[in-house]
């Protein structure tokens, strides 16, 4: 019987707690950690105060191609590439650090996070399996998430050429309707 290092087990538990606090699904925890499923479920209940959500993980690369998710995914993945390369982090640590930076950026911009930790992890796995690639925008030069093997020659990102309804959400409409309109100037 192989003995497991107590120190390594404590590090895995600490990482599991960090992942759970960031919103990781059970499938992510099972794939990245060597803790048993029962132990992860007990840990999830202790940290979140509820059972982990059930159901399958999202499986569609198309979600990352729509306007807002593409911008958010591209921001996250560029940060991840830096962290895993220059930061010399192992993949799961690079995901956690990149996701924390992504959340900080979104908070500073007073925006909502479009990307959950589980989606960010899934994005990294899609790149590793060759389903997605980074493509350079021909206008701004930024690198954006795109389907693998798509032509790159004339690619224009969603920031340089946003769709006609970009930014028009229910929340922005509610904010506009709550803002009082200025009274027209008085004429004599």
TrEMBL record:
Question: Known SUPFAM superfamilies for this protein?
Answer: FlhC-like
Subcellular localization: Cytoplasm
Query: According to its UniProt record, which protein family does this protein belong to?
Result: Belongs to the FlhC family.
Q: Which cofactor does it need?
A: Zn(2+)
Q: Which InterPro entries match?
A: FlhC
From which residue to which does any coiled coil extend?
Answer: none
Is Cytoplasm one of the keywords? yes
Listed NCBIfam families:
PRK12722.1 (NF009365)
**Nucleotide-binding listed as a keyword:** no
Biological source species = Paraburkholderia bannensis
In its UniProt record, which GO terms are filed under biological process? bacterial-type flagellum organization; positive regulation of DNA-templated transcription; regulation of bacterial-type flagellum assembly
What does it do? Answer: Functions in complex with FlhD as a master transcriptional regulator that regulates transcription of several flagellar and non-flagellar operons by binding to their promoter region. Activates expression of class 2 flagellar genes, including fliA, which is a flagellum-specific sigma factor that turns on the class 3 genes. Also regulates genes whose products function in a variety of physiological pathways.
Cofactor binding remark = Binds 1 zinc ion per subunit.
Key words, A-Z: Activator, Bacterial flagellum biogenesis, Cell projection, Cilium, Cytoplasm, DNA-binding, Flagellum, Metal-binding, Transcription, Transcription regulation, Zinc
Q: Where does Zn(2+) bind?
A: 137, 140, 157, 160
* Protein known as: Flagellar transcriptional regulator FlhC
Of the GO CC terms on this record, one is: cytoplasm
Subunit info? Heterohexamer composed of two FlhC and four FlhD subunits. Each FlhC binds a FlhD dimer, forming a heterotrimer, and a hexamer assembles by dimerization of two heterotrimers.
* One GO molecular-function entry: DNA binding
